[in-house]
Amino acid sequence: SLGANPLNQGVPVPTDAANMNSMGTAIVIDGAPLSNNANLQTLSPTISGGGGSVGGGSSPNSGLDIRSISTDNIESVEVIRGIPSVEHGDLTSGAVIIKSKAGREPLTIRLKTDPSIYQASVSKGMSLGQERGNLNVSGDYAHSIKDAKESYAYYQRATARAMYSNRFNKLSSNTSFDFSLGKDTRERNPDDERSQLETGARDIGLRFNTNGTWNVRKGWLSNVKYTLSGSYRDKHSYQKELLGNAFAAYSMSNTDGAVLSNRPGQKVYDNEGGELTNIPAGEANLIATYLPNEYFSRYDIYGKEVNLFANLNASFSKTLGALNNRILVGANFRSDGNLGDGKVYDPYNPPHRSNSSENSSPRPRKYSSIPFINQLSLYAEENLTWSMGERELLAQAGLRYDLVNSKSIVTPRTNFSFDILPRKLWLRGGFGVTAKAPTALYLYPENAYFDLVHFNSLNSTSVPENEQLFLASTRVFNTQNSELKMATNQKAEIGIDLMINRMRFSVTAYNEQLKNGYNLATTIDSYRLLDYIIYEQAEQNPGGIPTLREKEQHKIFVSHATPTNDGRSHNRGVEFDFDFGRINAIRTSFVLNGAYMRSTDWSDSHSFSNRKNLNELERNVGIYEKGKEKYERERLTTTLRATHNIPSIGFVLTTTAQVSWLNKYWTSYGNDTTFVSYISREDGSVKPFDDSMRDDPEFAYLFETRSPTRFIAESYFPVLLINFHLTKEIGDNLKASFYANNMFNSRPLYESKRTPGSFTRLNIP
């Protein structure tokens, strides 16, 4: 299932940590990684501080939308959660290695339905004749809804695939072409008269892949492998709604320092004859305006993502006595870019500004002007097998070098395994560093725009329409972070494997520390102190715009988000997998697995208080210590799976019992009640803060009341989830399957200890 684990529902995972975990997971299909690096389907990331997708689909600040991958043409899946080979890069969390079906295959038709999804797929593999190779084709369609009560929100997918495979003497190759169409739709809720919200996201994908192995087997050289892949994704996202409480300034200028009025090219003067407007060259036909309280707005985001990948490596092997060496040397290159038109909307009906940042304002952006991200990687790895009598030592050690747009890193990785008892007991372990390069969202963030109102008499009932005037200035700030580093994850693990007859028992302990995780966050440097002047009418000019004079002068802060490396995570735990094999007397096999996990996520940067001082425009900004909040989670789960065969009637029954023994989360706090420094409203400098200053009227308004319940840990009671799966073979060519997830419909309510009276439903399948 692609859904969330029901045993983990209700446990809040910090958004930044979850996004980084998803972004750092590589999905590799037939030797080529899928890419989300050029995804920019989001509205105002440098203002909102987020990168969530518009209308659905994969988010620019997260990982891939795996709904676009059909499972019906997959031959095998390998999940690497530990330390991968240096061949795999641009990852921090792990890798999912998928091998597609190739070659001959009988015609297979699969139909699936449940309360939230219906799906149909067909596949067929055929021989094209002697020495002409094989062709495997497949296609599928799926329709799903997330909630039966919200049938106006649904997802559709259609895929088609053709793979040609052949062997030419010593060369074996596979060449495939994939098409995919994914569409998220949220139609207008018939009961929603207020916002009348509609959203959508359409993703059309084309992918070409060719890979092969040339089996040389001459001297040390064993084989040479290659992979070439290219993909193109045409994305369109939109949002349409009736905005309310939408009063805001909006200027059509993209120029820092521009001052426009509500009349194209109109110059405005003060009472001393000085020009107040500043109309940049080429912007004489643009205006600034004050948006109405309510209006319909629609914006569209057009992305055209291009992803190229090439990999070439050679394997060398040699046996010297008891030592067998296999050396892997290779290089790969990838390039990711976006050729789309970007954000498009009617400038007279723009999107709603972000409420998280005062005076902020959206702007269109053309994605095709953004440079491509180019990544060159070199890697080398030694795989050693040392036979010592009946025992073997397996050791893997390698280095990987990545160069991404002038940023580089070297990551070492090693794994080992040793027979303590020959063919009975093994000790294994590993240590390594993985790295994920920043995506386009972080390497090339958009500018932050702010529109400041200096005078406004629009829609005034006491001012004739031809005398109404609106005057606003635009400030533009570059949000790039030239010091951005690659995110890295340091991994260590150790484990044992025990084999007794046909039973196998594995236990693994692991420790992972993520550093330099990516965020879009507000920093000290992204608080900008601006001079702000408010004007009033000095002289009325009947039939024309008034002459203005200065009324007030202030210093105000505006703030934006910028790419940072402040994401930190520390994950540790123990996993076990006990396969008891098949008990022939009862034709049943049993597998028990489980895990204990403890995770800590935090932001290694300052947080701020910029609360208003009543109705005053001027205020200081309080700075808290770095990492003042750490989000802790602790879990213990087990899963027992029993599979029973009844050959006489063609039944295969599988029952799975999942138990969540421990599911706990809490927040650890540092000094969250006072500041370590502050940004002065007088000159924008950072000054030390002493706790004796907290009652000073200059700072008292910055402090907020902290709830004493924030220290309380939430701990769910143990819950049991039982799933049942029955497959019936009907003749030689037909199978029917029945699923019953949470077959006893156990969905207990948990009452929050922090906020009594609020409940979380558990065990939702």
Question: Can you give a write-up of this model?
Answer:
The protein is mainly beta and 765 residues long. It has a single domain, classed as Maltoporin, Chain A. 2% of the residues lie in helices and 57% in strands. The protein has a 23-stranded antiparallel beta sheet that branches. A 4-stranded mixed beta sheet has the order 2-1-4-3. Residues 1-9 have low confidence and may be disordered.
List keywords for this structure.
4-stranded mixed sheet; 765 residues; disordered N terminus; 2% helix; 3 helices; globular; 23-stranded antiparallel sheet; mainly beta; Maltoporin, Chain A
Give the low-confidence spans: 1-9
What would the CATH topology be? Maltoporin, Chain A
Mean pLDDT: 93
Category by helix and strand content: mainly beta
**What's the name of the CATH homologous superfamily?**
TonB-dependent receptor, beta-barrel domain
Cα distance, first to last residue?
10 Å
Alpha plus pi helix count: 3
- Specify Rg, calculated over alpha carbons: 30 Å
Architecture, according to CATH?
Answer: Beta Barrel
Q: Just give the CATH class.
A: Mainly Beta
- Report strand %: over 45%
**Main beta-sheet strand count, sense and barrel state:** 23 strands, antiparallel
Number of strands: 40
Large-scale geometry: globular
Helix content: under 10%
How many domain regions?
1
